């Protein structure tokens, strides 16, 4: 889950200035003005992104600290998650109003993948199904292996966590998929792939970790082949009116979650749509699936109070324990309609 765009009204002290032309109104950092040139360019060679602020040395240190915290959190917690919940490190998709149990969580997690593919209109037809997939924020490779099996595709996953990358590769070898899936430690904001490499770009609950949402989506578009589908499933805050900011208690709640899960400030699904539009991406769609994931966090909390969950939690380390302590805040955020579980899909022009 999932690795500091805008949390309206809150950001760390070193990240308080904003670019006046950033389509997502993201907070970018104290810095002098420069021009950001997107690696994905139009045929004319002109950048499709707007001018923005360069990141200062202090802001770079903030980002590096964030990345280090994300890597260490998942180095610590991935084994615990796998022991209890399996190899899919993301929410499950449930029918609205139903309860979730540990027994049916895996089916719900697989359903989340299938619902995202369906929403994006990814075809199963032999001539149209994706053949090259990138899994951005791959965890221990659950989505990559599922997509490789479903489509017969070649999948490459990236994560900030060396432990995750090693475990993802080991599981793939055990499942006989070593020739179709591979994993490496890499930054989603500076991906080690050439332009136009993939016909399905997949990000399942990693966008919330990205300290620059505009750069994040620009990189997804850069590595996408012409006509490729981009799928982002991520945590957002509620949409805001143009003149609106989050309330103080909302900012405080999100800050506690940010501190525990090594998240930068949040943005809304509407912010993602604006960024996609600024990049001239097409067929942009979004939906709020908050009601469909509502049973997930109560089920995670119940699993933590089993003997296996409790003893594993104590062994995993302080970062994991700190994350467990704020799980009730995720439930509170959903109930207050502050936190939104969003899907955003789009297509790179052919």
From TrEMBL:
Region (SAM motif III), start-end ranges: 223-232
Residue span(s) of domain Methyltransferase type: 134-232
GO molecular function, one term: S-adenosylmethionine-dependent methyltransferase activity
InterPro entries, per database record: Methyltransf_11, PiNMT-like, SAM-dependent_MTases_sf
Family classification: Belongs to the class I-like SAM-binding methyltransferase superfamily. gTMT family.
GO biological process, one term: methylation
Domain of life of the source: Eukaryota
Protein name stated in the entry: Gamma-tocopherol methyltransferase
Swiss-Prot/TrEMBL keywords: Methyltransferase, S-adenosyl-L-methionine, Transferase
Sequence segments annotated as region (SAM motif II): 196-204
Pfam families for this protein: Methyltransf_11
The keyword Signal appears for this protein: no
């Amino acid at each position: 889950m999932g690795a500091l765009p805008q949390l309206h009204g809150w950001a760390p002290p070193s990240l308080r200035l904003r670019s006046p032309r950033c389509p997502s109104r993201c907070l970018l950092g104290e810095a002098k003005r420069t021009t950001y040139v997107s690696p994905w360019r139009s045929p004319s060679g002109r950048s499709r992104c707007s001018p923005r602020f360069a990141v200062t040395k202090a802001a770079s240190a903030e980002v590096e600290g964030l990345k280090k915290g994300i890597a260490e959190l998942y180095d610590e917690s991935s084994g615990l998650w796998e022991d209890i919940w399996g190899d899919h490190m993301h929410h499950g998709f449930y029918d609205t109003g139903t309860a979730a149990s540990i027994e049916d969580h895996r089916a719900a997690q697989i359903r989340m993948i299938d619902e995202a593919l369906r929403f994006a209109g990814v075809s199963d037809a032999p001539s149209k199904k994706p053949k090259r997939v990138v899994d951005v924020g791959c965890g221990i490779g659950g989505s990559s292996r599922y997509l490789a099996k479903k489509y017969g595709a070649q999948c490459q996953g990236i994560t900030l966590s060396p432990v995750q990358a090693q475990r993802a590769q080991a599981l793939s070898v055990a499942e006989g998929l070593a020739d179709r899936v591979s994993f490496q430690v890499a930054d989603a904001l500076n991906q080690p792939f050439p332009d136009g490499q993939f016909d399905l770009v997949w990000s399942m609950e990693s966008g919330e970790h990205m300290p620059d949402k505009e750069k994040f989506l620009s990189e997804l578009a850069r590595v996408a082949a012409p006509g490729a589908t981009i799928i982002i499933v991520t945590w957002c805050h509620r949409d805001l009116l143009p003149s609106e900011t989050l309330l103080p208690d909302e900012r405080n709640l999100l800050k506690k979650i940010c501190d525990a899960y090594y998240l930068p400030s949040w943005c809304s699904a509407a912010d993602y749509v604006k960024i996609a539009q600024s990049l001239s991406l097409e067929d942009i769609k979004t939906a709020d699936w908050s009601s469909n994931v509502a049973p997930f966090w109560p089920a995670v909390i119940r699993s933590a109070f089993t003997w296996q969950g409790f003893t594993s939690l104590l062994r995993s380390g302080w970062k994991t324990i700190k994350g467990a302590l704020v799980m009730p805040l995720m439930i509170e955020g959903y109930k207050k309609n502050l936190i939104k579980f969003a899907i955003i899909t789009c297509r790179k022009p052919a």
